[in-house]
Amino acid sequence: MFQFFLEAEVVPYLLKFLDDLTNVYVRFNRKRLKGRTGEDDCRVALSTLYHVLLTSCKAMAPFTPFFTEVLYQNLRKASNGLEESIHFCSFPQEEGKGGQRIEQSVKRMKIIIDLARNIRERHNKPLKTPLKEMVVVHPDAEFLDDIAGKLKEFVLEELNVKSVVPCNDLLKYASLRAEPDFSVLGKRLGKSMGIVAKEVKAMTQKDILDFEKHGEVTIATHCLKLSDIKINRGFRRPDNMTEEEIDAAGDGDVLVILDLRPDESLFEAGVAREVVNRIQKLRKKAALEPTDMVELYFKSLDEDESTSQQILNSQEQYIRDVLGSYLLPSTMMPPHAVILAQESFHGISNLAFSITLARPALLFNSNAVLALYGEDTKFANGLQTYLLSRDHHNLKSEFHLGNGKVTVDCIENQPAVEVALGVHVFLTVGDYLLSTKAQ
Questions:
Q1: Cα angle value 208/105/179 (rounded, 5°)
Q2: 158 Cβ partners below 8 Å, 6+ apart?
Q3: Would you say 283 and 294 are in contact if contact means Cβ atoms under 8 Å apart?
Q4: 3-class SS at 136?
Q5: Which residues have CB under 8 Å from 196's CB, separation 6+?
Q6: pTM (two decimals)
Q7: Confidence class for position 5, pLDDT limits 50, 70, 90
Q8: Mean pLDDT over residues 23-38, rounded?
Q9: Phi and psi dihedrals of 181, rounded to 5?
């Protein structure tokens, strides 16, 4: 009976914690975990995740002994000195100090994201459709600073909005209404509850703001604290705007307002997001892991290719940030590239295009390679054939060890030459494109 009671009390908290770990920490730190913010930052993020997973295994072991043992044995492979079994480990003890403020801010951020998604669903605005602006209304200046600062990147990415505007002027977009918390005050006030409730509901906007500022108010000789009264914030729509143009959602604590008006300047961003979404799905269809490096090629299937080309040019930085590589024109794909997946798409924002995923392929500077052998085509072709036969990863390592240079002296009946990376050959088409943009 005690074991059942213990599990009923503890397991829900463990499940909530694991849900936050997956959908908050891992989801919001994908770029860091993949190394796109630098090697040092990647190590910090991975080390943090490893420590949390290891500690979680130890905490869950009494409830899921076999499952945690499997996880633990995998975690042991990345570290020395760990016990042979999860069940030989001591139960984890509390370490360090909790960051109450940041925890509260992240909690509110999750609420903001949920509220904004609700508004989108209400107006049939999918997340792939970019919106111009979101306003967050809340009296806590520190929280608004976090939303407009440290947490801004996560909010923008999750909600696909171009800007977040913090607002601590509660009366600009909201009407305030006070409600007594009957569950708290009922027993304490007894027969006085009716009088106090009537006075609380009659509080003006100014009264409510003063109450929130000072933290208490005296009504009918009773001193009421912040925990005794619920403040509900309702949305007050600007006079010159309709519900289809601007709408809001709140939870009584924070109010989220979305500008729903279409903006032609956001069209290109919306198309780019659609293209990225199709690429991610194609990667999954090809059974690629997130760490698998591929080159991405784009080909317009429209008679007029200028629209898609303009979009790719204007959204190049966004596409690179999300995918970690260039979206290359299909005309640059070398004939020896190994294609992993290919698919055509139609009716995406009235555009048609095809996407090709290929293994990273060497790209040669033919004139520079010919110059190595005094314009001897046979020798130049022999060098290219040899380099193409090499394992791409090993060849990359050799160039790295040789400070960008590799001596090739193993081709039969050919003189030895020194091949320079970025001069005679590029490891990927993306590297070549990057070099041309730097010139």
A1: 25
A2: 28, 113
A3: yes
A4: strand
A5: 180, 185, 189, 219, 220, 222, 224
A6: 0.63
A7: very low
A8: 84
A9: -85, 95
